[in-house]
């Protein structure tokens, strides 16, 4: 109610109520007047009608006028609705009356006029109460008054008629009031919307402020309607645009404004400090659209910036330089490559600052070496990057060695570590930093100014960046030096980071390659090929290994250490060494990974302690370990947080066996490792890899596995060809993680390469078994090693019978190496059900035995013990080269010469 709309609503409602009340009173008064007038007219009409009715004179002249007139009187009253019809004589005696009780009584009333022959109507209070009475004389044919007819109507009856009309009048008044109130409410609502709920005082104050702002503000203000017509312009806008007096309500294009300014004002686009010309003024125009918060249109502000033209130009230059520095921060240092970083610096600077940019660096910086020489002792730079030049330019080409000349800008900048500005090369006594014979060519090509800025990082000068300007560009000024120094400082930090990364990367690569296998070991079970690719971002901890085991078995290992750099490479070397040591003990697959898990947990504990002292990082690793037995084609494999292998069948189909995956190394918490046993057909390919091969930021794991399946699927290929195909299909342009790939094609030992015998636990069984072995060696054409083989078997079988437990078995294996001139290996194995392990010891001079294992160790290349689920196997290997078997004649001398005999 404090708003203007509320006050107007109340005023309208009060006025309507007064009008309705006045109209209602007027209608009631008028109704009463009309009813009274109707009563007069009706009573007079009834009286005249009755007085002039036929037969009334005869009835009056009859012997009994009352009897003649009384029925007619009552009928007339009922028919006309009056209160009574009275006939009385001139003497005032009632002759007939609607009320029979009044007959014969004298009538009191103003009837003199009627008696004189004139009708009249009057209001008086009689026996019926306050009434309206009309009296009419009854005349005989002679014209004499012989009687009077009086007809009264009570005022009460008249008022009853008026009261019966009051509900209608009141209902009409109420309806009018409701309609008027609703109309007032609608008008008030619209007014509230138009005035935004403001009161009169607020609206007056707003108008005053609006008028004061429009006339006092130093900026021009325009309000333009949605149809492009000018709705309002303040005094400053009229002055700036030189608008005519009748500018308002005219279209913007009809005001004689500059074409660009008129187009902006008439368009439906917003603008912020857009510079436009208006006659000889330079205006900064800001435009905001009023929709959707108001009617379609726009509000425009104008500022005169004519006096700021020079400052605007300088601000644009400063803005361009700030943009250049911003671009430099985004574009310089996107890779950790020294040469690429130098090229990025040249490309950024040549866009807005110089026509030509050259970057020359020291040789140690390009090689990633630590700079130890003093700046004054540097005499050579290597041209690393050039931007902004066409073919045939006179400057040094990229990769050319530049010899510094004394007292030249580059030498001065390098020695003193400060920028050197040569504003005009043609007028300067200092020659450009090029060979003397090329100085004239530089000037001839239009190059007239240069600025040399040293690249410094950590207090060491890495090289220089030279900015050149040619014809069409102004010479360098002192104001340009700060920008060039800032640009060079940012680039120097990036170049120094790239140099240090190159140095660390080279060290990590060298360390890792020294820790990875340099060549695959000789073995006859698998044909193996591999690929290793370090990540572009840095060397990681991926590794692989092929470890020959006893009994022609081969272990395949792949692993991945979390992280990159020297720490990851060193940790990888520790784990690879540990795997070699555990494998040399012929540990089962699950036990080996369990021991490796304990080792990694110990390493992690050491690293946590180092982190608490501000050193090192916590290590994590995954590993997959598989052992292939060519005698049975069985593959025993276990994985600790590592992707499972792929098996390519001889027909080219690819399978990814579902393996139970144990937690990554260091997280097993002493839990047992689950293994899987697979029977692999001959000529299958086993593919082991690290996650860098299948995972990439552009694809998920499932897509990577499917791509690997497609790369492996197809006809039989050699492991080398398989590696090449997989790397070509899977390798991304910039691998973010190391990739290790190991492909092994399986070979099975044929029945003619294996011989087995069951041996009863009886010393007499040694000779028959030895004889059978000798026959099999003869069948294999190995008679030349028969004596030593029989000797080794005799010792091993005798020890098994004497100290072991049943069952006892003997197996001979003959291997033929692949792709090697080596004649192969003869493997002798004796298995028994005991878990006791033989060992060498020094035999005393008085000992009768204890020298058997010495003979085994002396006449075999390798020997050892491995444990199985049912006992142990003692094995020995003999090389089949001609020069690897000792002569039997030397056996006696050999035994006699040994004073430190060994016993079991």
TrEMBL record:
Pfam families reported in the protein's UniProt record: GAF, HATPase_c_2, sCache_3_2, SpoIIE
The species this protein was found in: Streptomyces yokosukanensis
Signal peptide residues on this chain, from the entry's feature table: none
Coiled-coil segments on the chain, per record: none
Positions of transmembrane segments: 166-187
Keywords, in A-Z order: ATP-binding, Cell membrane, Hydrolase, Kinase, Magnesium, Manganese, Membrane, Metal-binding, Nucleotide-binding, Phosphoprotein, Protein phosphatase, Transferase, Transmembrane, Transmembrane helix
Record domain PPM-type phosphatase: where: 527-746
Protein's UniProt keywords contain Cell membrane: yes
InterPro entries found in the cross-reference section: Bact_Sigma-Reg, GAF, GAF-like_dom_sf, HATPase_C_sf, HATPase_dom, PAS, PPM-type-like_dom_sf, PPM-type_phosphatase-like_dom
Species lineage: Bacteria, Bacillati, Actinomycetota, Actinomycetes, Kitasatosporales
Annotated PANTHER family: STAGE II SPORULATION PROTEIN E, STAGE II SPORULATION PROTEIN E-RELATED
CDD domains reported for this sequence: HATPase_RsbW-like
Official protein name in the record: protein-serine/threonine phosphatase
Record field: catalytic activity: O-phospho-L-seryl-[protein] + H2O = L-seryl-[protein] + phosphate
Gene Ontology, cellular component aspect: plasma membrane
